[in-house]
Amino acid sequence: MGNSPIGTGGDVAQLSKFYRAGTWIEGRAEDQLTEVAGWPGMSRIAAFPDLHPGRFGPVGAAFLADRLWPQLVGPDIGCGMALFALDLPGRKLNLDRAARRLRMLEGPDDGADAALAAADIPDLTAMGLGTIGGGNHFCEVQEVAEVAPGAPLATGDLCLLVHSGSRSQGAGIFAALQGEWGAGFAPDSDAGRAYLARHDAAVRWARLNRARIADRAAQALRCQATLICDTSHNHLRETDNGWLHCKGAAEADRGLAPLAGSRDAASYLLAVTGRDPDALGALSHGAGRRYDRAAMHGRMREGRADLAAMTRNALGGRVICEDRALQVEESGRAYKNAAAVVADLAAFDLAHPLATLVPRITFKTARTGGEA
To answer: Which residues make up the binding site for GMP (predicted)?
Structure first.
């Protein structure tokens, strides 16, 4: 690991890079690391192999500071991934029938109001609860291809990986700040306390959202879903040493964390070691983008036949994504090699793979609902 003190003026942040010398990292992302390291009150940064440029700062990093920086978390407060075991054996999965049924995830969640009331999350509405959203969010049926000793899954098992966040709730919280976060917030200021209360509510809402999506998907598949782990990767929280900000950096749940590949590549369930304090208790949450959305439109053919081919993944699975732009922007080619990311994490003893999960059905968006 490389530790380098960088910053501006008298303020110095320690930067720890958890990727090997040969790992491809876009230069603009490392420039953003250098910039954020000079922000007031920034003390430590951990960068991971899925690092890539973001709107307000790099994605795939954790930051420790003495104040709150809402722009590091961004609008999708509480975004994360939850992995669920399904009691449906892989050999019984009919891909086409299951894909038709999962289209119902496009519609509203009839149980959203009751679920939100039971969760007692203040000041947020049920709008969007139980739905996936756009961008890189998804609900994916996966089959276990390989396991290591101690894995909570067996080869041939099915599981569900849900990637979603706080939808319009978090976006509304962030927009209401109206850019007032330019210099960060003191945690004990009125603005800081108000943001923290809304942030924490959005994190809870996002976790509930992932659970509702899984419940709906399991109902569509005529099976039960049991939570294995749920990890947020867009959030902040207080620690003994300051305020930890995670942007595209996951904190383990029960010692476990999912790491997403792409619709064309395996994902992984990781056992997290937590042994290196310089990692700030965080690690990669996915493969990380190699090409931004605009660049993908210049790299992919977008004819009718090309788009039709994208309804199948490279591993024989199904892809439900009926937004032409999103089909291209979220192609597997947009992402780095997830296996290489896992190898970097293992090389630094941050985490080790417990299970390899192959995408069988990836749901992103549909024009119409599924069959009953």
So the answer is: 136-140, 233-234, 267, 285-288
